[in-house]
UniProtKB/TrEMBL annotation:
It is an enzyme of class 6 (ligase). Its EC number is 6.3.4.5. L-aspartate binds at T119, N123, D124. Homotetramer. InterPro entries: Arginosuc_syn_C, Arginosuc_syn_N, Arginosuc_synth, Arginosuc_synth_CS, Arginosuc_synth_type_1_subfam, AS_cat/multimer_dom_body, Rossmann-like_a/b/a_fold. It comes from the Bacteria. Signal peptide: none annotated. This is Argininosuccinate synthase. It is found in: Cytoplasm. CDD domains: ASS. The lineage of its organism: Bacteria, Bacillati, Actinomycetota, Actinomycetes, Micrococcales. Residues 4-165 form the Arginosuccinate synthase-like N-terminal domain. Belongs to the argininosuccinate synthase family. Type 1 subfamily.
Amino acid sequence: MTERIVLAYSGGLDTSVAIGWIHDATGADVIACAVDVGQGGEDLEVIRQRALDCGAVEAYVADARDEFASEYCMPALKANALYMDAYPVVSALSRPVIAKHLVKAAKKYGASAVAHGCTGKGNDQVRFEVSITSLAPGLQCIAPVRDLALTRDKAIDYAEKHNLPITTTKHNPFSIDQNVWGRAIETGFLEDIWNEPTKDVYNYTDDPAFPPVADELVLTFDHGIPVAIDGRAVSPLEAIQEMNRRAGAQGIGRIDIVEDRLVGIKSREIYEAPGAMALIEAHRELERVTLEREQGRFKREVQDRWTDLVYDGQWFSPLKRSLEAFIEETQRYVSGDVRLRLHGGRATVTGRRSDASLYDFNLATYDEGDTFDQSHAKGFIEIYGLGSKQATARDEKFGHGPSLDPDASNKGENE
Ligand code: ARG
């Protein structure tokens, strides 16, 4: 029987050419698999047909939108996932769910390998292949662009020579990856990191400099997940979609950063993630109200590690799973309402309430009748500062006491 290879198919030039290119290089039949992670854009039935027209023996579309929103975006929200404190891991989240569907397809069609359209310079090749082999250790991975010398110019020539039903242009300025959690734009003139992004870079967001009137809404969370907007029940997918629309209209969630790739390269990337950024803002505030201080402090360490693992392609790793168990436990009381004001590029929390709140008005108030016994503070401070006080006494004994002279302290010297 002829060997079979499942290809992650996007409908674009590179993966359209890859169908014939892989067949020519390996003799294998190619099965195209497109995964819907809410990227919008072209009709997926059109994409499926194009794969067949480009020579795929089978082509199919997996609707993974709800699965992606519930099982990938929601864990990222619970983790307030922002790589380098900025990037809501948009592309990093979609790779493992796409990989899962590729592996499913490989099993279904008896394929021996899975192929993807990534280059050899980015994170996505790592994420695909580490995910694929974590799910199915026996499967081979092929990246035609990296392994079979499929350059862009060769792809254009191939498409023209074979009359493939795809528009070829040598002048496509950007490389774009998008899904319901956000959109990533790179290359072209953005590679000069001094260049400001032009208007045509953006698609999920309107210009925050010219916003419509402010939009106010109440998000209801249950165990860290948004379950209603203004009292209307929503699924995770619907919550993200509605927030994309409303926060996008206000220009919220535009991000422009130079980021550290796993493979050692710094790259400039523009992101748009209006829904994700607004949801994270609200979720984080609800955690401030419902998590105990030390628990919240430790969670921030855990969630940063979780985010790094996800960025680095370790979605299916044991450590990520263990950290997730911790994060999940912290969400026990992250339920309640957050009021958000969306305006001019910012999502601002203007109110919060929760039955599980740790905020106690009677403890916090500076008005008459508070329940906090201030006399306890004196002894607490005595003990809390004791270690440092003892150390200073010792420093003085050795002539290294703290200098109160402003000039000396600038030099970092005490004597
Ligand atoms: N740099 C981002 C990441 O590694 C996005 C990569 C997505 N690709 C793109 N064509 N912009 O997650």
